[in-house]
Amino acid sequence: MRTETAQKPGRARLSPEVRRGQILDAAQVLLVAHGGLPLPLEDLARAAQVSKALIYAYFPHQHDLANALLARRFAALLAAGLEDAAARTDLFEAAQACAALYFEEVAQAGPVAHIVLRDPFMAGQIDPTLAAIRDRLARRLARTARRMLRLSPQEAVAALSLMTTIPEEAGRMVHAGDLTQERGRELTTRLIGSSLRALTPDAA
After folding, report:
1. Under 8 Å between Cβ of 162 and 95
2. What is the model's pTM?
3. Helices marked H in the chain
4. Confidence of residue 9 (pLDDT cuts 50, 70, 90)
5. Alpha-carbon distance 31 to 87, whole Å?
6. Which helix (H) or strand (E) is 1 found in, with range?
7. Any residues with CB less than 8 A from the CB of 53 and at least 6 apart, and which?
């Protein structure tokens, strides 16, 4: 049986970090195409050009693989400024900024975070550190929504959850090639704005 230690003559040995990244790159593409977890390891090994044994060496369980994918996407969103966007005190500014960042994320990488967070396979298996990031950002936006829209805590969470689908679906369509990025940005901005205006209480 061929393993990664039995490489073709002249083939450069990749560092563990590069090899791990190669597996994650392939897993990300496969996850979006497959639409759920767990991933077919045969397909992943073929796409990453590694053995199944090597995948297990880096990710003993597919929960570990999924959390690594989620960590990469969260890192990208945080690096793009999602934390600062969610902390804005004006709900319209916060929601539009967060939606714009999430749209760009999904348009570029696909709905990776959504799939990992919502798939039943990951129930109770999300890395606590990643769950804490998700919850912290959601609480900030929910508090602002409650204050400005005069919603109950449950209503604020529901409203934000529904509005999250706007940049997500627009990003999905761009990622799939069904919508241009410029048009996706425009639709995201307009639909988030109209949703917030519809929820804003009339001035007394």
Report:
1. no
2. 0.90
3. 16-34, 41-48, 52-58, 62-80, 82-86, 91-109, 112-118, 128-149, 153-175, 181-199
4. very low
5. 31
6. none
7. 3, 4
Distance CA 59, CA 66 (A): 9
Angle formed by the axes of helices 62-80 and 91-109, to 10°?
Answer: 130
* Interatomic CA distance for residues 55 and 39, integer angstroms: 12
Write the pLDDT tens digit of every residue in 23-81.
Answer: 999 999 999 999 999 999 999 999 999 999 999 999 999 999 999 999 999 999 999 99
Q: Which amino acid is at 125?
A: Q
> For residue 188, which of 90, 77, 100, 94 has the smallest C-alpha distance?
100
